[in-house]
Amino acid sequence: MSAHPPAGPAIHPLVDQLFTRHGFAHVDADSLDAFAAAPGHALLVFTEDPIRFKETLDLVVIAPEVVRAFAGAFRAGALLPADARKAATRYGFARWPALVLLKDGQYVGAIDGLRNWEDYVEEMQRLLAAEPVRPPSIGIAVKTTGSAGQCH
Question: Which pick of 11, 14, 89, 132 has the fewest CB atoms within 10 Å?
Fold first, then answer.
């Protein structure tokens, strides 16, 4: 985990400001477990390609405001699109971009897609008071063969 992503593909300036101006940790697939495992709450910003998901640029402006509104409540990190896609299945959120809140390395909840400011505040208050839960799964239909309800 580093304060700034390594040189590579161009990062949109608003996304880059999460690291350079707002102090978010750069979290990648290799550092996610270490970042998540630290004690206390952690907020993760899952970014996507801002050309495909224009809402990403809105969320990278909103996320620092969430951090300011809840000053000291959690540490903040962000995943760039390639790493965010790799890690997203762990947390089962339905829409991009997303904020994920962890507590002591365990999933507490996600705020996916864009919301009104009041919704971010209310949901973050609820998540900070909540205990960790199992992340939702993506949902894969399971079919059984034979008679329903029978064990073999």
Answer: 89
